[in-house]
Amino acid sequence: MLLILCLFGGALLQPLSAQKNDNSSDAFWVESYYYTPVRCDGEFVDWVEGVFTIHVVNHYKDGVWIFQRLMIKGIGTGYLSGETFKFNYNEKYSNVTGICTWHYNLKGDDGDHYIGSMTWDYNTSTMTVNKTVCH
Questions:
Q1: Helix segments in the chain, DSSP class H
Q2: Which structural domain range is residue 112 located in?
Q3: pTM (predicted TM-score)
Q4: Shortest CA distance to 79 belongs to which of 42, 34, 120, 116?
């Protein structure tokens, strides 16, 4: 399940043709189903899912796809808690390093508030919880 998070950005939204003729970027908007794990002090507490608006920006260097940024906003539901969350999420996947890092800010209608950052390393299949703040 954790892998789905970056797979969505790093694989499913990867441009159909990773070759471009210059050092540039392209961008597009998509509305899609999305979910993310929520961790507090390194422990899994819930995952939030829903349909979100996603802004995707692909960056190229010398015509080769280098990295991708996702900016995601919307309202989702905690699968375990049932709480409704305002969802702000930023992700960067590097095709060069194989590292995906995401930052999230979830504000719940029952008063829960989660802010965090995690990293997925495709090379080692390792997830690292970088930071969490839970209220």
A1: 2-7
A2: 2-134
A3: 0.71
A4: 34
CA-CA distance, 33 to 116, in Å (whole number)?
21
Q: What tens digit of pLDDT does each residue of 46-90 get?
A: 988 988 898 999 999 888 889 999 998 999 999 999 999 998 989
Tokens 């995401």 correspond to 102
Name the phi and psi angles at 8, rounded to 5: -60, -50
How many helices and strands in the chain, by DSSP H and E?
1, 7
CA 43 and chain centroid, separation:
18
Q: Quick check: 105 and 133 in contact, CB under 8 A?
A: no
What is the side-by-side order of every strand in the sheet holding 64-78?
A: 25-40, 43-61, 64-78, 84-94, 99-108, 113-121, 126-134
Q: Report the 10 Å Cβ neighbour count for 76.
A: 24
Q: Which two three-digit tokens encode residue 99?
A: 């590292």
Q: Which amino acid is at 26?
A: D
- Rounded to whole angstroms, the Cα distance separating 52 from 50 reads 6
Number of structural domains the chain divides into: 1
